[in-house]
Q: What sequence folds into this?
């Protein structure tokens, strides 16, 4: 095993999570550089985490240091251009979500990956706990049977003050509301467990929050394997929870947590007559490591050691981003959307707002709701 040189771009709150988890990686990685346009914040962050290289531009960082991996912890609208700059320089990228604000932007990564020979990965840390790996392996096998019904809820609460930061709550800066910035973690895990989605029908609305995007979305999804799932993304829910439930032929798999899970957050129930078989299959799995950034970082280092593709790589990440685009497209057109339908020329390929359609619909429905209540 080698030790990888890591640089962090953006030194806000999530960057501290990255730095702390790199520091707990048992020598698998070392922080060599950090970057932020705010010099005072950069120095404070670098002093706290003993980072020697300090830069106020990514271009300067890449010119003067040679990191193996750059972690992008910047606001969403900056992710794609910074990722492309790193990839073209031959540096691997681990980007916070969302990976891009549109499918069009995300598809720009391919040329950069080819040019620099580096890989892209997105922080979807819920994929990496032992229980998620166990569930993924058991869904569809003889003990659990094929998946039939699922539910995926991200029920969070954000007050109006959450949108005081100028880049929050706009299509151009965040790409959307809870569908893009919050629920994406949970439905990414759902896709990881159930495989490719096939069709989605959805709605989105602005129920209460002072934002330009939606504060609620709901979707009905059919998967290629025939399973049907509901996905609910909310920023209006005082009792916050993140939940997934999957009913297979012989078992119910449930996960209830908030921002990260341990094995204890999972509940497995066997169907009548299958209790012992289901319990034995589940308890026969390694169930020690919970989810989190550290779990994903270690999986990334293992892949690099073995010369394998990075986990949560570009291909699977694109499927998740495509589902987000399809939820918006269905919600704002009132039509079901098929996987593979949103291609160049489609109004939702270049942005989740559908060339302004989403804004017009949300504005009109929010106005109608306000008028009715008064």
A:
């Amino acid at each position: 095993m080698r030790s990888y040189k890591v640089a962090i771009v953006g030194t806000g709150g999530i960057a501290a999570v990255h730095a702390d988890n790199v520091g707990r990686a048992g020598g698998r990685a070392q922080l060599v550089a950090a970057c932020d346009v705010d010099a005072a914040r950069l120095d404070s962050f670098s002093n706290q985490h003993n980072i020697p290289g300090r830069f106020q531009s990514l271009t300067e960082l890449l010119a003067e240091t040679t990191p193996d991996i750059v972690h992008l912890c910047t606001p969403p609208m900056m992710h794609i251009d910074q990722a492309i700059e790193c990839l073209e320089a031959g540096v691997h990228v681990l980007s916070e979500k969302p990976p891009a604000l549109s499918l069009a932007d995300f598809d720009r990564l391919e040329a950069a990956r080819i040019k620099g020979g580096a890989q892209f990965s997105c922080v979807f840390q819920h994929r990496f706990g032992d229980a998620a790996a166990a569930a993924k392996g058991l869904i569809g096998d003889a003990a659990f049977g094929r998946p039939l019904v699922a539910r995926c809820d991200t029920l969070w609460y954000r007050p109006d003050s959450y949108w005081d930061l100028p880049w929050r709550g706009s299509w151009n800066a965040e790409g959307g509301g809870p569908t893009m910035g919050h629920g994406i973690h949970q439905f990414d895990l759902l896709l990881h467990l159930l495989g490719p989605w096939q069709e989605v029908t959805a709605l989105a609305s602005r129920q209460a929050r002072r934002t330009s995007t939606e504060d609620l979305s709901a979707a009905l999804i059919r998967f290629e394997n025939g399973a049907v799932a509901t996905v609910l993304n909310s920023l209006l829910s005082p009792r916050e929870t993140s939940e997934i439930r999957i009913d297979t032929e012989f078992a119910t798999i449930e996960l209830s947590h908030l921002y990260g899970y341990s094995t204890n957050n999972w509940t497995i129930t066997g169907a009548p007559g299958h209790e012992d078989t289901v319990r034995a299959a589940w308890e026969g799995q390694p169930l020690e490591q919970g989810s989190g950034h550290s779990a994903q970082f270690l999986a990334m280092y293992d892949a690099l050691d073995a010369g394998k593709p990075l986990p949560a790589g570009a291909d699977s990440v694109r499927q998740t981003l495509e589902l987000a685009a399809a939820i918006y497209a269905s919600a704002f057109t009132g039509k079901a959307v098929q996987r593979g339908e949103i291609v160049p020329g489609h109004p939702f390929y270049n942005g989740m707002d559908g060339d302004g359609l989403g804004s017009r619909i949300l504005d009109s429905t929010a106005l109608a709701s306000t008028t009715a209540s008064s």
